[in-house]
Design goal:
- The chain has 560 residues and is mostly beta strands.
- The chain has a domain at 476-559: Immunoglobulin-like (Sandwich), CATH 2.60.40.
- Helices cover 0% and strands 48% of the residues.
- The chain contains no helices and 40 strands.
- The strands form ten sheets. A five-stranded antiparallel beta sheet has the order 1-40-39-36-37, with no helix packed on it. Strands 6, 7, 8, 9 and 10 form a five-stranded antiparallel beta sheet that branches.
- The chain is globular.
- The two termini are 14 Å apart.
Length: 560
């Protein structure tokens, strides 16, 4: 009698509707364990960035020495979707690149934008569109959106499903000018292959930050070194329409701050104006709101004191920001601000304590900070080393904290300790955090050997809403609940608890579609689909089950 293949299916939660997760999920369950995203000995894997996808998945991009810009997709329970992290695009190969920037797509995927620099065979600013499973939608090569490659750019949504980009034109031109590009959902370059000029004035513009004006155009702020003070940067702004035409006089932009600042962020205010958060070259950071006509509505010149600092949009009409206190390097603070410029949290340094002061002579060194807002919670991730003095080095620590609208901390005054590196010779770089699609947090970072240019690896950790580690609780959305069950024959057995349009598709580990196994209306209950007719070789595959717009997936190990 012919022996049937053995089919082992382990659940991978890839959307917010899934049954209980399997015991072999890969998220660590203690703060002493990390999920390895990429950790090849003697290879630099650096500059990680993280972004949330549909269905509880997250994408992590990073630069891999000798390869280029790579990515990995993690399921909600910590499974990696690719055995080997693939290149974002074949044009992402190159000797050096930095962090990517990402934006959501209307279908739950992500736009990824990066620049190839320092002698790349494909110099320029590139973009790729990935779906929520990590499939490349703009071809293997991606799209060259601008030939500039000076590691100096920013992107923002256009309100129509595509995005705007602003880039520093070096080294294409001898001057530091700013150019723009408008990219459609289909990857079309709406402003031409070379983009359109934004600011070209006396070789002085750099470090752009952009935000949509919510009327088809965009706001741009930048550091400007034009005379009479070419040695000292100032912050300028301009509003452009959908054809890159300036809308304010003078066309070369308006000064909004007399210093450059150590960082610059810009946000739409929801009423066609914008909000700017920036460093000021002094101890204090600055926050201001401007009208659609470019008039100053209000300014607060004591909006936190320190860098790193970051602001995010919260519930409608509110913004949140966090910073590492600059005067004593002991505390991480946060603040909630409304559209009238009113601060809602009080404390000894102008905000609520996110992580309480360190005791005695301890100080924070090498701080890293990231934050986001999700479901009425302001999440902050903080990594740092502590030391009595600069000559003493201690292991780094990573904490997370969530505050509600009244600044009540979810994890006590100190925050939740999620991991530590036992070696004092290591430090954290490029800490990045994102929602897990529910009410938890996924944190990613580069573990760097101090003084080394090759020993750097990328790790991640997951924390549930209640402070526990590991896989999230089972999740359901609406009337649908789907469960993939184990099988000892060449079939996929799954269960749905409500009638719906069900599509079952088989992929290989590179995300290439192999076969559509089911596509149509099914009744509630158990269903079985055979694989024996496909003549598949032994190996690992991915099966996705879509019920209307909800998706789960499982890894399938087929052994013949």
């Amino acid at each position: 009698m012919k022996k049937l293949p053995l089919l082992l299916i382990s659940l991978v939660i890839l959307a917010a509707l899934v049954a209980p997760a399997p015991a072999q999920a890969q998220w660590p369950t203690t703060p002493r364990e990390f999920l390895s995203v990429s950790a090849i000995p003697d290879t630099m894997e650096a500059y990680p960035s993280i972004f949330s996808l549909a269905g509880g998945r997250t994408i992590i991009t990073f630069f891999k020495d000798g390869a280029g810009q790579c990515y990995q997709v993690l399921s909600a329970d910590g499974y990696t979707m690719f055995t080997v992290p693939p290149l974002i695009a074949t044009t992402a190969a190159g000797p050096y690149s930095y962090s990517t920037k990402m934006l959501p797509t209307p279908d739950g995927g992500v736009y990824v934008v990066w620049q190839n620099i320092y002698g790349s065979p494909f110099p320029g600013t590139y973009a790729q569109r990935l779906d929520s499973l990590g499939n490349r939608l703009w071809g293997d090569a991606g799209v060259l959106i601008h030939p500039a490659h000076w590691n100096d750019f920013d992107i923002c949504p256009d309100g129509q499903g595509g995005f705007f980009a602003a880039v520093n034109t070096l080294p294409l031109t001898p001057t530091m000018d700013l150019a723009g590009q408008h990219v459609s959902l289909a990857g079309e370059l709406l402003w031409g292959a070379a983009g359109l000029p934004l600011i070209t004035y006396l070789e002085a513009q750099q470090f752009p930050a952009v935000a949509p004006d919510e009327q088809g155009g965009l706001y741009v702020i930048w550091e400007d070194r034009r005379p009479p003070n070419p040695g000292f940067g100032r912050i300028f702004s301009q509003r452009f329409d959908g054809q890159a035409q300036p809308l304010w006089a003078p066309a070369t932009g308006r000064e909004i701050w007399p210093g450059s600042g150590s960082f610059r962020q810009i946000f739409p205010d929801g009423q066609h104006g914008f909000i700017v958060y920036h460093g000021g070259g002094t101890n204090w950071n600055h926050l201001a709101r401007y009208s659609p006509e470019g008039r100053l509505r209000w300014r607060n010149d004591e909006a936190g004191a320190g860098d790193p600092a970051k602001m995010v949009a919260g519930e409608p009409g509110y913004f949140y920001f966090a910073w590492v206190e600059h005067f004593h390097w002991k505390t991480i603070y946060g603040q909630r601000v409304d559209l009238q410029g009113r601060f809602h949290w009080s404390g000894p340094s102008g905000g609520a304590q996110v992580i309480s002061p360190l005791e005695g002579a301890w100080q924070i060194i090498y701080p890293e900070l990231d934050c986001f807002y999700r479901d009425s919670s302001f999440w902050v991730a903080e990594a740092y080393k502590v030391s009595h003095s600069p000559s003493l080095r201690f292991p780094f620590r990573i904490y997370v904290q969530a505050l509600d609208a009244q600044a009540n901390p979810r994890f006590g005054s100190q925050g939740l300790y999620i991991c530590s590196q036992a070696l004092s010779s290591h430090t954290v770089a490029n800490l990045s955090a994102a929602t897990d699609g529910s009410d938890g947090i996924v944190t990613v970072w580069a573990d760097r050997l101090i003084g080394s240019v090759s020993e750097e690896d990328v790790f991640a950790s997951h924390t549930n809403a209640d402070g526990s580690f590991g896989i999230p609780p089972a999740m359901t959305v609406g009337a649908y609940s789907v469960q993939i069950k184990r099988s000892d024959s060449a079939s996929i057995v799954y269960q749905i608890n409500a009638p719906g349009i069900v599509s079952v598709t088989l992929f290989d580990l590179l995300g290439r579609k192999i076969n559509s196994l089911q596509d149509g209306l099914q009744a509630p209950g158990n269903h079985s689909l055979s694989l024996s007719h496909l003549s598949l070789p032994s190996g690992v595959y991915i099966v996705t089950i879509r019920v209307d717009n909800q998706i789960i997936a499982g890894k399938v190990a087929l052994i013949k």
